[in-house]
Amino acid sequence: MTQDQQKQAAAQAAVDHVLKKLDFDSYLGVGTGSTCNYFIDLLAQHKGRIAGTVASSEATAERLRGHGIPVEDLNSVRDVQIYVDGADEANPHLELIKGGGGALTREKILAAAAGSFVCIVDAGKRVDHLGRFPLPIEVIPMARGYVARQLIKLGGEPVYRENFVTDNGNVILDIHGLHPIGSPRALEEKLNNITGVVCNGLFALRPADLLLSAHANGVETLSSETRN
Ligand code: 5RP
């Protein structure tokens, strides 16, 4: 399978999972990115089965609505039973780097709020150690210079993502040079503590519960019960 076929296969596995597990009156969280776009397009064939969704970005909300799938505000729903999203990197502990598409803050809110977090990836996203993919940090615009200096003190090389504003009106710094991240949880906490940082793209304090990982010959399922 090509990378695109792997993304579609992982997305189909997530649709199958949702159809099996999602309660009829429960809400589904939907992530952002090309793998999630496949998920949305495949989900559209079963839209009558879904009470409603909560989107992790304006782009995802628009795509869902384009298919006639209802989208609600997170504040208006009782709970989000399952959240499906892609990732930029996933390690064997189901810890992730996310935010390549810049939607990390809303994605992390949905992952936190969801009963279960299902991550869908192609083989290119699987790593032993996180950090080769530049780690995205969402920052309040006026704090950009200050935050960048703190990131350099932590040993990173922050790069300002030019011409990009998040759905929340903030900017992104992508931190290069972090590989291998020895303790993703500790780094996530440190980054959370820098004033001016809204959110960082490490999903280690709240990792995925289920990883549907496509490779050349099929889709492998890793769950938090079996993770290393
Ligand atoms: C967006 C994300 C995406 O999940 C991540 O960038 C993966 O994207 P793709 O499925 O296009 O490879 O975190 O903020």
Indicate the structural class.
alpha/beta
| Count of DSSP-assigned helices | 6
Number of strands: 13
Ligand species: ribulose-5-phosphate
Q: Report how far the terminal alpha carbons are from each other.
A: 27 Å
Query: Measured on Cα atoms, how large is the radius of gyration?
Result: 17 Å
The 3D shape can be described as: globular
Widest beta sheet: strand line-up? 2-1-3-6-12-13
List the helices and strands and how they pair.
Layout: H1 3-21, E1 27-30, H2 34-43, E2 52-55, H3 58-66, E3 80-85, E4 89-90, E5 96-97, H4 104-113, E6 114-121, E7 135-139, H5 144-153, E8 157-160, E9 171-176, H6 184-192, E10 197-200, E11 202-203, E12 210-215, E13 218-223
Parallel strand pairs: 1-2, 1-3, 3-6, 6-12
Antiparallel strand pairs: 4-5, 5-11, 7-9, 7-10, 8-9, 12-13
This protein binds ribulose-5-phosphate (5RP).
